[in-house]
Amino acid sequence: MKILVIGNGGREHAIIKAIKKNKDVEKIYAIAGNGGIAADAECVTIGVKDIEKIVEFAVANKIDYAVVAPDDPLVLGAVDALSEAGIPCFGPNKNAAIIEGSKVFSKDLMKKYGIPTAKYEVFTEAESAIEYLKTCDFPTVVKADGLALGKGVIIAQSYDEAVDAVRSMMEDKVFGKSGDNIVIEEFLTGPEVSVLSFTDGKTLVPMISSMDHKRARDNDEGLNTGGMGTVAPNPYYTEDIAKECMETIFMPTMNAMNAEGRTFKGCLYFGLMLTPKGPKVIEYNCRFGDPETQVVLPLLKSDLLTVMQAVTEERLDEVNVEFSNGAACCVIMASDGYPTAYEKGYEITIPADVADHVYVAGAEIKDGKLVNSGGRVLGVTAVEDDLRTAIKSAYALTEKIHFANAYYRKDIGKRALAALTEEK
Ligand code: AMP
Ligand code: GLY
After folding, report:
1. Cα(409)–Cα(218) distance, rounded to whole angstroms?
2. What are the Cα distances from residue 217, in Å, to 220, 407, 409, 414?
3. Which residues pair with 80 in a beta bridge?
4. Gap from CA of 131 to ligand 2 centroid (Å)
5. How far is ligand 2, taken at its centre, from the CA of residue 195, in Å?
6. What is the pLDDT at residue 150?
7. Ligand 1 in contact with 220 (CB < 6 A)?
8. 384 has a pLDDT exceeding 90
9. What is d(CA 289, CA 293) in angstroms, rounded to the nearest whole number?
10. Atom of ligand 2 nearest to the CA of 292
11. 89: Cβ below 6 Å to ligand 1?
12. SS3 string of the chain?
């Protein structure tokens, strides 16, 4: 089989490495991939949002199955276009990807179907939003409606900060059209859990839970990033909570999308907060999380491609989706200065015995050498029997990789370990 994976990052590298294990796979293409992915797939220089060219490539190269991983092409309708051209794909159609593409849509969906989430109001112009802020407690949360590279959420500590956020989104258009509408919502507290799930609209199978570390610096300080590391499973996500989430959040969401005529097929990501009043949805994503995928897929015992194809063919109930009892930790190595300014072009050395554990995000080949080209450069994942050992191993592997100005958090998994100790 010939497989096409659309996307450029560590998540896509993890998906490709997992798909590669299927012995029916003869060839994997990545659009556009990156310098590290090039070791596992043939990279094709086409933009991930250039749907016309993607379809053209897929047809011309007789692709048997495609995986659309990032939010942008999903929200733009890449799966619809590929399917119409006769190429079976993994990922939701455009009318279902709106669950991530519009926060107003997802909040209204949750309200309509009684799915627990933070209280909120929607605004279509700045002045009424600012008027409303006078009635809010702080901190309060201001969210741009559309996709904003994960930066469209501002936790405003004061009225003035919230007003600045509203003006920058709605008047200065810092996120373009994504800020035409905004959501202002109640600030929730509690541990965060990411739960990715496979669903074909009839069956929903949650994957092993995970914990992201979004801030740039140790102890959750510094700016928000695309994710500096992950662990799985997430110790806060107990069996009882998992059961509650299945009943109050996961199945109701799948059913709600069906009732709206927007059946979701693909990976539905639940960003949850375990509040004192129970689990609530912080956000939905219409795709695998990054860097959650880099810990979740290495723990998947079942064959990824088989599960994905079952989702596409709406027979997820027929396949086994099994995870190992172990634990995984992924440490993201970034270019120092990320997420603001950083230098590129430094050679990366990865010893051969570490390469299997590495998912490359921001690197390219220059003059035959792998060099950093992005803020988040790569992720290093270790899988072990327990979380403490997985964290130790991930850091031991990380120390074997070198590039100038490399930076990584030293405390990935620390909070998870503390939670495990509290439990005992
Ligand atoms: P998002 O881009 O939607 O993932 O939001 C980024 C981060 O903002 C989340 O991971 C949370 O840490 C935080 N966040 C979003 N909404 C809320 C909320 N209602 N209360 C508290 N924190 C929130
Ligand atoms: N790790 C969060 C995300 O993928 O959106």
Report:
1. 6
2. 6, 10, 6, 13
3. none
4. 32
5. 11
6. 75
7. no
8. yes
9. 6
10. 1
11. no
12. CEEEEEECCHHHHHHHHHHCCCCCCCEEEEEECCCCHHHCCEEECCCCCCHHHHHHHHHHCCCCEEEECCHHHHHHCHHHHHHHCCCCEECCCHHHHHHHHCHHHHHHHHHHCCCCECCEEEECCHHHHHHHHCCCCCCEEEEECCCCCCCCEEEECCHHHHHHHHHHHHCCCCCHHHHCCEEEEECCCCCEEEEEEEECCCCEEECCCEEECCEEEHHHEEEECCCCEEEECCCCCCHHHHHHHHHHHHHHHHHHHHHCCCCCCEEEEEEEEEECCEEEEEEEECCCCCCCHHHHHHHECCCHHHHHHHHHCCCHHHCCCCECCCEEEEEEEEECCCCCCCCCCCECECCCCCHHHEEECCEEEECCEEEECCCEEEEEEEEECCHHHHHHHHHHHHCCCECCCEECCCCCCHHHHHHHHHHC
The closest alpha carbon to 332, from 390, 404, 398, belongs to 398
pLDDT at 148: 86
**19-62 residue pLDDT tens:** 999 999 999 999 999 999 999 999 999 999 999 999 999 999 99
Tell me the CA–centroid distance for residue 199 and ligand 1, in Å. Answer: 24
Nearest to 361 by CA among 348, 131, 170: 348
* pLDDT band at residue 424 using 50, 70 and 90 as cut-offs: low
Q: How far is the CA of 14 from the centre of ligand 1 (A)?
A: 25
- Residues 330-363 have pLDDT tens digits of 999 999 999 999 999 999 999 999 999 999 999 9
Tell me the pLDDT tens digit for each residue of 179-225: 999 999 999 999 999 999 999 999 999 999 999 999 999 999 998 89
Contact 287, 71 (CB under 8 A): yes
155 by Cβ neighbours in 10 Å (0-12 / 13-18 / 19+) ranks as middle
CA pair distance 210, 325, nearest whole angstrom: 14
Q: Which tokens is 3 given?
A: 């497989």
Q: For atom 4 of ligand 2, which residue has the closest CA?
A: 289
Q: Closest ligand 1 atom to the C-alpha of 186?
A: 19
